[in-house]
Amino acid sequence: MRAVVLAGAGGPEVLTIREIDAPRPASRQILVRVRASALNRADILQRLGRYPAPAGWPSSVPGLEYAGEVAALGPGVARWKVGDRVMGLVGGGAQAEALVVHEDEALPVPARLDLADAAAVPEACLTAFDALTTRGRLTRGERVLLHAVGSGVGTAAVQIARALGATVLGTSRSPGKLEQARALGLEVGIATRESSFRDRVGAPVHLIVDPIGAPVFADNLAVLAPLGRLVLLGFLGGSRGELDLEPVLRKRLEVIGTVMRTRSREERAALVEAARSGLVPLLESGAVRPVIDRYLPMTEIADAHRAMERDETFGKIVVVW
Amino acid sequence: MRAVVLAGAGGPEVLTIREIDAPRPASRQILVRVRASALNRADILQRLGRYPAPAGWPSSVPGLEYAGEVAALGPGVARWKVGDRVMGLVGGGAQAEALVVHEDEALPVPARLDLADAAAVPEACLTAFDALTTRGRLTRGERVLLHAVGSGVGTAAVQIARALGATVLGTSRSPGKLEQARALGLEVGIATRESSFRDRVGAPVHLIVDPIGAPVFADNLAVLAPLGRLVLLGFLGGSRGELDLEPVLRKRLEVIGTVMRTRSREERAALVEAARSGLVPLLESGAVRPVIDRYLPMTEIADAHRAMERDETFGKIVVVW
Fold first, then answer.
1. What is the CA radius of gyration of chain B?
2. Which of A13, A182, B126, B256 is 20 to 30 A (C-alpha) from B283?
3. What residues of B are in contact with residue A213 (Cβ under 8 Å)?
4. What is the ipTM of this complex?
């Protein structure tokens, strides 16, 4: 089978398409014939040699999410049959024509989505769903602030938060992305290229989902309401800066880190289980839809990386076999 | 009635004993004849003019906790009768011969405790109980690290964490306090006058309860296990320092601020309700006992402050009418 294989660490030119052996499903695993995958910032870090795959996952084949059909069953599989349409998150290896996953870690693809669209769902929607609900404990009527709202996670989080009854505020450096996010349910869009969001949030917010990190940490704490939660998803702006814990205590805030890739199989299965009841119905009803910037053939994976690095996309880049 | 009254802001000499009008219980309030109160660091900050009482509480009469007997009932009180022994937390005013509190905010004094001992229970035990359980989500078998383990909250937390099935580690600048804490259930005592606790914790810990703040923040994050929680109780060492959020994300940590005094009446009542079932039985069985350094007459309140400022105490200073 073909796969994207990293020929060393470096620029997009290290991404090659090669023939490798197809994996075989072990006990309770399914073999998935992958039709599409989508890009994540972690793919760029991995390509640069800064974010190796966790133990137990392919180290030289990138790809953190997939959609496809079940092609074969390992012993003891109860949940799926050959031909079922599935999607999911993996620790690596999704940018290949086939991969094996534990049956509990796959989600059904809703009938209204084709597989190219479904490939854009897992990382963005599961990360947003987990950040908003399990980690962030969002409740109806709360105000939630989403940084980098034009990203894959951001566009998923707008829709999920809105569907859960929240008022959604979001930031982006690009006024154009804010305009697009309004169509998804964003109520207050704040362009941050010229000034901080701090004075433009208005009433305090109850939950923040932040992939930026240290540069916005103090302002995040400043705009949170008492008992507010800041869920950290990444450090696009770096992790180091000045610390002042005073508002954490005074307002009894919570700062909550979350990352998907290093989770154990049990944790992934628990998240997928929560998503079966909490997220899949939102996808089935169309309340939440994957937001896709463009589709590219898998053979143009290098161009896909270049587009993501230019930060010009709104939503996900899907790569299709 | 007599009360401790702040004659301005400053040293212990601003603490005076004066006659003031006794309060009267309104709807669902009880009038408590106070027999004893206990000192808290917040009393010192308030005396210095740096920590004013929250709105709705006496501004010039200090005292955050009390034990006494119910002396009169306001309209609609269902939970108590005159003569019942009660204890509790207040936003201020406990260092007076009487105070009024909402009936839902008082706890029964266990039979094995006299009122002078019971006065040392509320702030230390409720803070420790809340930090460990509601905020920190301690579960049986976890390792918990308590900073300033010789403090009132520290000595309560050792016993509660131990009773809940945790392995308890603690730090103190004083080897003598660590020795005393061992008798309460402390398993690993770490003296921090000369070096950091970071290399002496051993296996990672799941929960930290910290009243120190910024100076130990990075080391706290370093010793936490994946999904560990850091509950911040205070800033004895200050709130400002260097920030590196990297471990928060990588290990999916939670940093949780908590403070008792600014809570709303509803929140106080909810905590007291949780304590009725989770904490009072531990006090009744003797699994958790208030740790009292000394008893002083209320008329020696200035000396009580001086003793606390010298940081020479192990457990609480109780002041008695």
1. 19
2. B256
3. 245
4. 0.87
